[in-house]
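Progress narrative, work stream C.
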Amino acid sequence: MPHPTLTRADVDAIQATLDGIRREVVADLGERDARYIRGVVRVARLGAAGGRALLMFGIGPVTWVLGVGALATAKILENMEIGHNVMHGQYDWMNDPTLSSQTYEWDNVCDADQWRHYHNIVHHTFTNVLGKDRDFGYGFLRLEDAQPWRPLHLVQPALTVVLGALFQWGVGMHDLELVDPPPDRDLRTLATKFRPFLSKAARQLWKDYVLFPALALANAPRVFAGNLTANLLRNVWTHVVIFCGHFPDGVQTFDEAELVHETRGDWYVRQLTGSANIDGGPLFHLLSGNLSHQIEHHLFPDLPAHRYAEIAPRVRALSARYGLPYATGGLLAQYASVFRRIVRGSLPPLPAVV
């Protein structure tokens, strides 16, 4: 049972309610959703084109700042609201080859096929199951007392800051399992995984730090610095949103033994109690890829994310009805909670009192 206060009848009722919400949304999908995602794609493309133009042809610091802002916003939209959500299959029903979950390739160093494996299959199946979900701590962060402490954990607050600045690289290398690799992994398997990552990373580095600076001629240093800054801003923003959805205080973890005989209702309860939301307005939700509704995303990962705001009040009411936590809060409060948890986990456990 995923929560001690629930009976089997409660879990079955929660499953029926959430299955019903899902059916309602699926039945209602249509032109409104198609217009929405195509509109976001247009905005992201125009933002990227405008930002790059300002960086390449602008003069002075004002146009540089505007160019970086436009390009960073476009990269955030492309990664969060478009790439992440498209690759979840949220728009496969449109039968649009440019929005296909199986062929979409996004604008960062992470190979899409590797992401689809470790995120869609592993993370969303084993959400917050210690030892199974590598997204919980990314293989090197200690966030729970149940996780063994190692001296390396002393520097995990500093490593978190570095990861935030280089987040696309952390995401890109995640499936390589370089930290705490599986014991049966051999060099041939590692090389097989490395090839697509290196290929994708090389294309991204070429585009942002060779091709576009070269096209700018005398403005090459300006474009190089602008692209670097836009990627940094996108990385930090994505890191903050993702961490706030997964690691604040109150987010629960689970033991692999709890998955034995797990029903869909049990899985729903695990998502409800193992995720957190971030409060905000429509623009904030858009820029977060609607992952500010991480609870609803974990419940319904393949429903269009812009629908989560409509679903959230019903999910929150369901949680209250059965006495389940619905973790949510402002961005600063949630991230402060995350960082406190990271600091606590960095310290060695106190010796047991006899």
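Work stream C, second folded protein:
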Amino acid sequence: MPLEVDADLHEIDFGAFDSRTFASIERDHPELYATWMQAPTTVTFPNGETWTSLRERARGAIERIAARGDNRTTVVVTHLGVILATLGRALSVADEDVFRLTVDHAHTCTLEVVDGAWIVRSVGVPP
């Protein structure tokens, strides 16, 4: 099967926080860290991205993939932020509630588009 890389499916750009531990971010930026933990969709990462930006680019990528045709199975490998944005769209979950969902590493979600409606078949199925 052909492999395609889509930059719109990358994880949120953590900017200055990229590659840092939670402990080091909490130590150096306690107020921003606290906001991030309490209301993650409201944070703008220093020199990074907002949740809104991630959500829009991820949803655009997933919409493009879904529009390629009916009766086609596509496997998308991506990060939690993109998964949450996609599930949020499919389930009509508000941004402030989307982080109540989670999917562990290497687990799968199955979604289907039927007559333009998104259906979530499974969430967080282990390998």
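Residues 41 and 96 are 6 Å apart (CA to CA). No further action is required on this item.
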